[in-house]
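Hey, I'm writing a tutorial for new members on how sequence and structure tokens pair up, and I'd like a real worked example in the thread rather than a made-up one. If someone can provide the structure for the chain below, I'll link this post from the tutorial.
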Amino acid sequence: MEAFVIIALIGIGLLAAELLLPTGGLLAALGIVGLVVGGILALGSSDSAADWIGGALITLAVLSAISFFFITRKVLRSTRALPKRAGTEEMIGGEAEARSSIDPTGKAFMRGTLWSARLADGVGPIAFGDRVKVEAVDGLTLVVRPVVTPAAAIPGRQPGHHQPDQGAS
């Protein structure tokens, strides 16, 4: 088997691997180089089909490079607008449920986990069962404030004090 065939197959394998692995384009670049080297070696070979195979490999490398360039630009453009958040940073702005009274500390349940919680500055006590919004994460403690709901905005009703429905029989 000719060397250009082996190098070209390795190049095609690297391009295929780039589709499946998050390498940031490294495998694609190596695959394109492999196709070009395979094409150049094919053009210098004495094999009867090597002339058109060399041109085809170099053409495939150029088309792969152009495709990779445009697809990568489009992917980067679409993901650049997304917020760069991971871990506990994702929790900021989310809602949790108070699993104890929080005055000034207590427990809140968020995403399947019971967290320690403390009140944000300038916030009054929060009752068991109230919805809270996470303002910050300090180590393993959520800094929270109550979520204002339309029911909580009714005059005379305080958050955490559930009143029975007046219309129920």
